[in-house]
Every structure is written in C-alpha cells, then in structure tokens.
Amino acid sequence: MLKKDLILKSPVERAIGIENIAKGQFGAVLSRAGVGKTSFLVQIALTQLLADQKILHVSLDDPMDKINLRYEEAYTNLVDNIGYVDPQKAVRLWDDICPNKVGISYTESTFNTDKIRDYLKSFKKSDLALPSIIVIDGINFDKDVSAILEDLKGLNQEFGVFIWFSMKSHREEALSEDGFPVQLEAVKNLFDKAVFLQPVDDKIEAVILKDGDRIDQKHKLNPATMMLAE
Amino acid sequence: MIRDLERVRNIGISAHIDSGKTTLTERILFYTDKIHQINEVRGKDGVGAVMDSMELERERGITIASAATHCEWDNHAVNIIDTPGHVDFTVEVERSLRVLDGVVLILCSVSGVQSQSITVDQQMKRYEVPCIAFVNKCDRSGANPLKVSGQLRDKLGHNSVMMQLPIGLEDKHEGIVDLVTMKAYYFEGDNGEIMVEKKIPADLLEEANAAREVMLDEASLFSDDLTDALLEESEITTEMIMAAVRIGTISRKMTPVFLGSAYKNKAVQPLLNAVLNYLPSPLDIENVAIDMDNNEETVALESVFDKPTVALAFKLEDGQYGQLTYIRVYQGCINKGDTLVNSRDGRKIKAGRLIRMHSSQMEEVDAIPAGHIGAMFGVDCASGDTFVSPSVNYSLIAMHIMEPVISLSIVPKDNKAQINMSKALNRFTKEDPTFKTYVDHETGDTIIQGMGELHLEVYVERMKREYQAEVETGKPRVAYRETITRKAPFNYTHKKQTGGSGQFGKVMGFLEPCEEEFEFVNKVTGGRIPTQYISSCEKGFRACMAKGPNLEFPVTGIKITLEDGGFHAVDSSEMAFQSAARGGFLEGYAKAKPVIMEPIMKVVIETPNEFQGSCMGLINQRRGIIQGSQEEGVMSVVESQVPLSEMFGFSTILRSGTQGKAQFTMEFASYKQVPQSVAEEISKKKADEKAAKNK
User: In terms of pLDDT, which residue wins out, B678 or B318?
Assistant: First the structure.
C-alpha cells in the first residue's frame, strides 16, 4: 500500500506517467547547471525501485557515497510528501527496495559502455532479473557523443534496458524551432522522452518536450524537494 | 627506563595490508640503532624483516600477530606496536589501540584510503586515539600524496593538513620540504641514514609557501599566539607552530600528514620527529577505570609512580619459558617481586621476571612504570585482565570483542597430533579472544571458530609448524542463528504427579522479537509463581536459547514476558519450573514464525578497472547485493554485502577471474533472514545429518 501511495505522489507519475518510464530506448532530463536534473532522475529511478524493479545509476559526477545519499534524500522527500507515514514502515520499505539499487561512479575518461555490458551480462549469466532502467548522469552532450549513444543503443537492444540521461543546457544558447535545447536537437531521433526543467519564479517548471501525447505539458515542482508544487 | 613520561611515546602503526607498515618499522628500528641491518619484508635477501618474527608472517608477506618493540629517538622512549592490516586480524589492532596513546596511520600514496584503513579509523575513533598520517611509497608510479590527504578528508572525515611537500615523486622522489621549518631535507648514505638540510628548490618555493599558508591557517585554530602572530604579521617561530599542531592532533581535531618512502629510505627520520612532536605522551591522555568497590564509578588514573598500580594485560604469548603477558601500566609501577591482584577473578600473582620487548628478543628490566609497556613472565591470566595493587579493586574497560562468524572441524592425523593440537588450541584461545574452540558432543569433532577463512587457515598452519600437529579440516560451517518474527503466547503446564513426589509448574506469557539477544521480563504478581522459582523459569528459557528447537542453531533476538502461572505447594521445585519454562518456550516458539538467519559480510573488492564488471558479476552469482562501485584512478572499488555461506573459496575464484590483480576484504556486517530456498536446503541438510547419525 505504501509503495502504491508513494508512486502515485511521485512528480514523475504526474509528469511522465509510470507506465512510460521504461518503455522505449532513451529518455533525457535537461536543464541548466544546478536546476535539478540529477534529483529528477533519482525520482524516476525511485518509481522503479518502488515497483520492485532493479535500477543501475551510473554517475560521472558524483562519488558512490553521494549517489547513495541522493537516493536517501529523494526517498525521504517522497515519504514526507504523502503526509503521515509510520516511520518504521518507511524504514522497512527502504530496507526492502534499497538492495535493488546499484550505483557506479566513473570519471569522464574512465567511463565506457563495455563495463556496463559486462555487468548486465553477469545478470543474464546468473539468471537474475535485469535492471529496468539505467540512469547515466554526467555525459557531456556539448561534445560529439554519437559513438557512446550508438553503443548504448546496442545495450538497449541487447538487454531491453531503458536508459535515462542527464543533459546540461546553457543559458545563453537559443532553443531550436521545436523548442529543444541544442544538446537534444542534435540527437532527438534517438530519444523517446525528454523533460526540460527551468526555474520559473520560485519554482521549477518541468516541461515535457517529448513523450507521446504529453508534449508541452508543464508541471511546477518544489526546487528543494522536487515534489509537485501545484 | 626513561621515567620522565613527557619523553615517552606509546604508538601503533596501523594501515591496510601492504601499505608498508613493517618496512617502515624496520627502518625506524634501524635509524634508532636497534638493529644493524635492514631486511626487506618480502624476503628478497632471504632473511625477512625483523618485526615479522613468525615464519608464517615472513612467508605470506603479511603481518599476523602484533609485535611490540622498544626504541629510543632523540632522548625519548618510543614503544611501537606493529599491527596487522588484514581485517581477519582486527582483534590484534583493537588490542593495541586499547593500550596505545597515538597511532601512525600509513597510507599508500597510490591506493590512498582503502577498506581496512576505514576499519582501523573506526577503531581509532572508538578508543579516541590521536593519529598522524604517513603517505608511504612516494617512489611508486602514480604516487599522489595530495590526493591521499584529500581522501583522508573526504572518506574518513579527518581534518588532514599537509606538513610536508614531496621533492619529486615516483622515480624522481628525492626528499621532502618541511613546511614548519621551510627547509628541504634529503637522505644520503647507504640506507638514507644521513639527513641533509638544504634550501628549498626554487621551483618548489611558491608551492611551499602556499601550502604553508594553509597549514598555518589550520594550526592557528589551536593557538592564540599563532593567530596573533599571523594577524600582526610578526615572527612565527617553529615552536609556536609545533605547539599548535600538537594541540590539534591530540584533541583529534587535526591530522598532520607526512610523506616519504620507507622502502627507499626517504623521510623516515622526520616522521620519527613528528611522533615526538605531535603524538601524545602518557601524560596527555586521560585514562579511566571502574571502581568495583564503589558502584562501578569511573575513576581517573594518573600516570604517577606512587599511586596504586593499575595495569592491563593486552596480549598473551606462550613461549618456551612459559606464558608471556604483555601489559600496559596506567598508574603506579610494577616492580620485580610485587604482588598484584587480577581484578577479574581476584587471584593474587607475583610479578616475577619483567621484560621489555624488542620484536622477538627480550631485555630484562627491574620495573615497568606507569606510561610504559612491558611484559611479565609466568602469569596465568586472560587477555583483557586488569592487574591492580591489593589496595584497590579497579577494572579497566574491556576491549570490544567480536563474535566469530565461521567455524571449521579439525581432525588430528594421529595420536601425537591430537596431543599437540590440544596444546596449540589451548595457547591460541588464550591469546586471541576471537578464536574459539569446542568439542561437538554429537560428532566428537573439534571445532574451531574465527573471524574469517584466513584467520582459521593461519591457525591451522601454525598448529602444523609450531606444534607439529597436522590436522585435516572439514568444510567450513556458517554460524546460523534462529529467531522469531512475531509475538506468540504460551501457556504450559509441566506435570508429573503419578504418586509419590511429583513435579508441577505452570508458566503463561508470550515471546516476541526484540533487538537484544535475549530479554526476560517478569510480570507475575500475587505470588502466582513464587519468587524463588522465577529465576528457574529464566534459566529454563535461557537453556532453550542455546539450541533452537527447529535446527539447533543458537537462538537470538527474543524477549520473553512471564505474566502468570501456577504452582503446587509440594510438587513445585526449581527443576519443575525449569522444565515448565522449556515447554512454554517450545510452545510459543512454534507459533512465533521462527526463521533462520545467516551472517552477512561486508565485502569490498579492489580491482583494476578492466575487471570491474566481472567482479560485480561474481558478487551477483553469490546472492550478493552490490551497494556501489567507484573508480579511483586505475582501480575500482566494489562494495557489496554477501552471505558468508557463499564466500568460501572466494579468494581463489577472485584471483583466477582477475589474473591475481584484485584483492578483497571481508568483515561481518549483520545477520539477515535467509531466503526460503536456502532455509529449505539448510533444513534438509540438518535432517540428513541427523539421519546419518542415528544409523
């Protein structure tokens, strides 16, 4: 019950729809630096954990400890958002779902898709369920990333794992005709979903750039907790 | 013996395996003129380092038992304990930290903070031991002492402050810049024994000035004089800086970082100076004891020679002349011939021969005064015992001892081996409280228990070499536990009244899960169970905890509340209520959804990046949960939690899967419920064993 309540209250449910999170190939969360891409990605991953799925979070920015801390904070924010929850129940649920989360920390120079492939292969070898999504946080889309994306496309096809990316945009850059940041415009054909976060007044506005019939929907989020502010 | 305690240092050298502890200690002994020849640890010259006195240590290239040694530097007495870095030997480290005043934490300049460094750091926190850091192996390819200092901050939360800068790194490592004296030091002579002071090279001057600013900034927090001098831009003396850093270090608010290469004989002497300058003397540390005659009130001990003696036995060794007991004297003085009392069992002993240790060689002394570490011969006691003058009844706080998690059956090969094996086990269990042994009454097997596979392997090997006791080992057994998962009532009557004197006892209450191992609460009122039988009830319940009703594993985590009962004026007795309690326990237990729990180990693998994926795969195959992985330079660290039962033989598998380049550490994390399939497997195995025994 608590799991269902948490999923329903998740900002991701409202913005993207839980049923869409792991369908397709690639998804992106875009924004300028510091607006909340990683926090939103973590909320995406949390919905999968609450649905008893495994997730893999790869970070090129944060060390492992920080990744784990982000997940703890995101879970706490989600729990606080639904009103009163028996603390023991919340802790027990976290203990249940936490083992399904694996965080791997790389640097830009050491990240390569073969390592992720090896890791996913080991699941198959041991007959274990694969992660439903992989979050890759910190790839620099200002550079030419076609080779990496090609490799990751291969991973998606081979293992059926949906991959969510963070994409950093820049204030001074103009948006494309479709209203996409330059970074997404270059690779938009590979992406099934994209959410753009931008500060508006004292809130964060999540704009759906790509996602079937939810295009152009906007949702206001609390910048401190990433929970729905409306 | 130096009696001015300000000039005494009791220090430990702690670190992760292969950080260079023993090599460093070897150098220290050389420079303090205790030994006359340097011998490399891995035995290239066929001799092996002096400190690793056990053959096995030299062979394996790891330090197993802690060795204590005494030396003198700059008119100070320095007692050093070299301690093992492998997590299976954590009890040795714990033991040493209990008695030391300060620690030199060695870190490899390439690998930096590793998993055992974290364990050692936690131990240092527990015993509040101040430390200085030495970034070793600056001659290695990839050496980066500044990065290591950063890791001390980020991973261990230390306020680490560089006190030196390297002059060259890797194969260009020549010396160090001392940021306090602002001089450069080089090390000449065949063994680097001649320390030469020169001006700082011009190309390092800017960096040195900047680093000194940072150091002074941090140090000034501990000295008003230094702060004033900085603000007024007046003269800053070396003494001012040292005094401030010393205060910061002793209060554990600062960790000064030094660097060098023990193997290449670089910068060991400055480290020795740092030990004297920044680590505490016995006078700087407050030690407390518990007054057993005064409601266990804490008593502050003073490092003075004329007060009642208080000493801790922290290590035992059975040598050819009898038992050698290492002691730290906290107060008073143990003179040859003194009478002391063991406050644990009240036995009186006479202090016979007193020894000061130098690795495996002894030096006889007349006394061991407060603040010093020494050893006594021929005293029968256990590790952790407190020795006091007859006029007081104090006890020092016992060391934190972990329960063993793995056991192994051993069978001696012949009769001679049986006798020698018993002698060996007797000695080892006295020396090491985490190593236990017992005879399984059902199978007749001798079982040894310890903290990991390596822990037990080493003892089996030592039995063979030191006692000529060859044994065959069985498959390691995991220390499973049983517990309950819900509250359940019991209402049991034990009745045997068939004529003549009978037995009668009735107990009513409930069992429920709890955090503690066992809790008993008596809520019986109105004399429904006479008071004299309540303790019998508790005894009966406790007896059931030793062997679970289902699978005979020890039971843990149960709170039993006794609410009501009944008795018979003639037939009730202590025996009857013990039996009633046992019956009540069995009844409640069956309804309380009992489960089996297994030890889960924290497994940390350090591997070259190329093998990260396959290491994670190995964990996945073992019902392990990967908590995360991080790349650090050329190596990756994979942290996971894995059931102990899946870890046997893991070192071989890891070695073969990573071309021998990965290593792992394993320590107990917690007990967790086993999955249903595993529970069924365990039950079946137990049933088969029972059936085989009954045939």
Answer: B678
